[in-house]
Amino acid sequence: MTICRTRLFNCLQTELVLSPAAIALALRQVGPDLDLVPVVLWQYGLVNLLELE
Questions:
Q1: Helix 20-30 crosses helix 3-15 at what angle (to 10 degrees)?
Q2: With a threshold of 0.85, does the pTM exceed it?
Q3: Range of the domain at 18
Q4: What's the domain count of the chain?
Q5: Span 5-38, pLDDT tens digits
């Protein structure tokens, strides 16, 4: 896992209290384009718009 992915993973776990499975799902969906992770999390109902701000 790259440093960017590791930081993102840690942030999503600590700040938004997402499970490792939810984060892994989003990472699988976006591939190398980490900019789309918030969109995927929202599409699957794992975060709401307030959490994305």
A1: 140
A2: no
A3: 3-52
A4: 1
A5: 889 889 999 999 999 999 999 999 998 889 999 9
